[in-house]
Amino acid sequence: MTAPGTLYVVATPIGNLEDITLRALRTLKEVALVACEDTRRTRTLLSHFGIAVPVTSYFEHNKRVKGAVLLRALGDGKSVALVTDAGTPGISDPGFLLVKEARAAGVPVVPIPGPSAVIAALSAAGVPADRFVFEGFLPIKPGRRLNRLRALRELETTLVFYESPHRILATLAAVGEVFGEAPLVVARELTKQFEEIVEGTAASLAERFAKGTARGEFTVVIPHTKSAGAPTASHGSRDEERT
């Protein structure tokens, strides 16, 4: 009986190609197949690094059919790399389903960690991040978006979510309605040429982006008002808690 191949979950750059890891490059060179959201974007990435490996699409609208194909390949002993268009697979994309199915089938799953817009934004936001909630994308419909923000307001933790350029102004308006004058941080085009990380109220940031800079992908960080600015526990206090 043929031993199954390995499914590698490979993080790729969110903008700057220099952010790819040596391990990711080696893995992409060694697998039999790369499964990706957009074959054109992934071929461009592979070509940049001189990697000639077959690619196949795996995205929201073909995940069921293509997932079965990939599981057969893995069952035949072929190793597959799963990548997303940018960042870490499984974060706000259908990659988690392939991972779930592979694990259920007894296929080894190995993460190759790397870039993530969530972590990059948090690291540069200067807000408490010992606990945070990642919300993905908020609902598109205004009423549902407001209701979701009201529910999130009750959580005593930092909030992070993604937003697209054509919805960022409406989303900031909704954030302002729910969170008022609370400060937040918005990161735009992370790691790219026009990267921008700005802080302000929802209203002031909406005014800023309304002037023609609402371009690229956005990551919004809202520190919880009760924890914003509060010092985190020192390593010493954590050690004391363990004793």
Please render the helix and strand layout as text.
Layout (H helix, E strand, L loop, with lengths): L6 E4 L11 H9 L2 E4 L2 H10 L6 E3 L5 H13 L4 E3 L12 H10 L4 E4 L4 H9 L6 E6 L4 H12 L4 E6 L4 H12 L4 E5 L7 E5 L1 H8 L8 E5 L12 H8 L1
Parallel strand pairs: 1-4, 1-5, 2-3, 2-4, 6-7
Antiparallel strand pairs: 7-10, 8-9, 8-10
Helix pairs in contact: 3-4, 6-7, 7-8
Question: What do these coordinates show?
Answer:
The strands form two sheets. The protein has a five-stranded parallel β-sheet, with helices on both faces. Strand 2, helix 2 and strand 3 form a beta-alpha-beta unit. The protein starts with 6 loop residues before the first strand and ends with a helix. It is α/β, with parallel strands linked by helices and 243 residues long. Helix 3 crosses helix 4 and helix 6 packs across helix 7. The C terminus is likely disordered.
